[in-house]
Design brief:
The protein is an alpha+beta fold and 165 residues long. It has two helices and nine strands; from the N terminus they run H-H-E-E-E-E-E-E-E-E-E. The protein folds into two domains: 52 residues; 88 residues, Immunoglobulin-like (Sandwich). The protein binds copper (II) ion (CU).
């Protein structure tokens, strides 16, 4: 609702500036820039909100605040405390999406992301960062059979091996 109101008022100010400025003046340029910046801010906020809810924002961090309705009891689980995960080994099914249940037991922000390589360049999943105590359910897309690195993006020493098979 706020977004709609803002867009409308931006459109009005652009129209008002137009007659006096067939040629781009600094003033129109400023108002267009401001409108674009405002639109970008709204888009970013919307993406952040949807990412937190885990309902979109392809390529950005994901994490559900509630367990999915059909949570597999065999879902990989881990927790964090004292700047460390409680395990360095996770197992997951290959070739099918799965959920990682991650409990952060401390106030420091942590996440769980998954990479295909030791150098952490080939990211396959980015978990949303959050401070605890709290739990997030990470919806991980299907992975080909193999071994992957799971790691906290803020604390690279927190890492382990995830085996998809
Ligand atoms: Cu961390």
């Amino acid at each position: 609702m706020t977004a709609t109101r803002c867009t409308a008022s931006d459109a009005r100010s652009s129209r008002a500036a137009a007659p006096e400025a067939r040629v781009m003046t600094d003033r129109t340029r400023t108002s267009l820039t401001r409108a674009a910046r405002r639109a970008a801010t709204f888009l970013a906020a919307a993406l952040a909100a949807s990412a937190l809810l885990g309902c979109g924002g392809g390529g950005s961090a994901l994490g559900l605040e509630l367990p999915p309705a059909s949570l597999d009891q065999a879902s990989p689980r881990l927790s964090a405390a004292g700047l460390a995960y409680d395990t360095t080994e996770l197992a997951a099914p290959a070739n099918e999406a799965f959920v990682i249940v991650f409990e952060n037991r401390e106030a420091v922000s942590h996440n769980v992301s998954i990479y295909a390589d030791d150098g952490l360049r080939d990211r396959r999943f980015e978990g949303v960062l959050f401070g605890g105590p709290a739990t997030r359910w990470y919806p991980v897309p299907a992975l080909a059979p193999g071994t992957y690195i799971f790691v906290c993006d803020l604390h690279p020493a927190m890492r382990g091996t995830l085996t998809a098979s």
